[in-house]
Amino acid sequence: MYLLESNLFFIRFKYLVYLLWINGEIVNDKNDNEFAEDYAIHSHKQKNQKFKSNLDIDIMNKQQIQNFIYESDQIKDNWKIGIFADTNTYVFILLNNGSIVRGEAKTTNQKILLKQLIVGDNVIYEESDNNINIIGITPRYSKLARLRIDSSKISYGCMQEHIVAVNVDIGVMVASVIRPKLQTRLIDRYMVMCEYGDIKPILCITKIDLETPPNLDIYNNLDIPIIYVSNITKEGISKLRGQLKGKKCVFFGSSGVGKSTLINSLLERNLLDTDEVREKSGKGRHTTSTSSLHPLKDGAMLIDTPGIRSFGLWNIDKDTLRFYYKEFDKFAPYCKFSNCLHFHEPDCAVKKAVKEGLIPKERYDSYIRLLTDKS
Length: 375
Ligand SMILES: Nc1nc2c(ncn2[C@@H]2O[C@H](COP(=O)(O)OP(=O)(O)OP(=O)(O)O)[C@@H](O)[C@H]2O)c(=O)[nH]1
Ligand SMILES: [Mg+2]
Ligand SMILES: [Zn+2]
Description:
By secondary structure, this protein is α/β, with parallel strands linked by helices. It folds into three domains: 57-137, CATH 2.40.50.140; 143-304, Rossmann fold, CATH 3.40.50.300; 318-371, Orthogonal Bundle (Ribonucleotide Reductase Protein R1, domain 1), CATH 1.10.40. It has helices at 32-48, 62-67, 184-196, 237-244, 259-267, 318-321, 349-355, 361-371; strands at residues 10-13, 17-22, 25-28, 80-88, 91-96, 99-107, 122-128, 131-137, 143-149, 159-166, 170-176, 200-206, 226-228, 248-252, 292-295, 301-304. The strands form four sheets. A six-stranded mixed beta sheet has the order 13-12-11-14-16-15, with helices on both faces. Strands 4-5-6-8-7 form a five-stranded mixed barrel. Strands 1-2-3 form a three-stranded antiparallel beta sheet, with no helix packed on it. The longest helix has 17 residues, at 32-48. The protein is globular. Mean pLDDT is 81; it is low at 1-30 and 47-59. The site of zinc ion has 7 residues, from α7.
C-alpha cells in the first residue's frame, strides 16, 4: 500500500484504473496483473448478465426438486431423474445411469411443453406402462444457442433463439480441412456462443487425411485445445476421446464436416447415419436431422447435431461482443475510453496491439465483421 501524503490526489480514470499523484509523479496503484484481473472480472460480469443458471443435478435435494415441479405434485419414491437423449418417431428416449429408457412421453405438469425439451435436459419422470410421465425439468446450467431467422410464412424474418443442446460441458467445434473448406469466421462465432452458454470449447479439425490443415496459430493464446483427426486413419481419435472423458459434449458444425462419422469413430461402431459430401459444391447434404445423445463407456456423453447452415450470434449486443475476444483483455484496460469498442475510437490500445502484431489481425478483422454485421 502507498503512504498517504499531503500532495496525493485520487483521480478516477476510466472504470477500473486509479492513478495516484505522489511527489509529482503519476504512478499506477495497480500492476499489470491486477489490471487484467479487474478487467476479466468486469467482462465476466457483463457476459453473465445475459445468462444465469447453476444447479447441479447431483447435489439437488428434494426441496430443490419441489421448487420447479407443479405445485400440487407431491414428491414420490418412484420418481427418477433422466437425461432427454432423443426422440425417434414418437418414442421418447431417456438415459438413466447409462441405461436407456424408451416410451411415449406424457406430462401432467401444465408448466411443461414437451416440444420445448432439448437434448441434454434433465427431467424428473415416472414410468407407467409404456409411458414416461415427465414431472419436471431442472434448470439448465449451460446451453449452446444460435440465432435463427425464421423462414416460415407466418413469422418470416423473425429472429429466434435456436437452442442446439443444453447442460453440456464441452462444445466440440467440428470443422474439416476440406469438403467443406475450413472457415475461421465460422469458428470465431462458435467460440463466442460456447462462452456465452458456459461451455468449454474444443476445436476438432477433421479430414486431415485429405489435405494438410492450415496454420491455426491465431488461436494460440486462447487456451482452446485444437485436435486434428482423420476418421479414415483414426489418427487423433484417442487423443480426442481423452479430452472428453466423463463429460457431456455437443458436436456441432457445418453439414458434411464429419460430426456423425466422428461420433461413430469414438463409439467404435457405425451407429449414426453419414453421407457423402456433394462433389461439386463441397457441401454436406444435411444427413443428420435431429440431435441425439450417445453414452461412451468411459462416462462421456456425445451429442450429435444436424449441420448448421448459418451460425448467427444470439443475444450478444455490440457493447458486449468485445468481451468475448479474450486476446483483447490484456490491452483493453489501456484504451482511452472505458467503453471503447476498438473500432473508430482514438487512442485505442487494442488497435495499437493489432498494429504491433500482438493481436492476430485476422481475429481483429473477424471481430469488426461481427460488430458491423458484415459476417
Ligand atoms: N476422408 C475423410 N472423410 C471423412 C472424414 N470424416 C468424415 N468423412 C466423410 O465426410 C462425409 C460426411 O460425413 P458426416 O459424418 O455425414 O458429416 P456430418 O457433419 O454428420 O453431416 P450432417 O449430418 O449433414 O451435418 C462422409 O462421406 C464421411 O465418410 C475424415 O476424417 N476423412
Ligand atoms: Mg451428421
Ligand atoms: Zn479500444
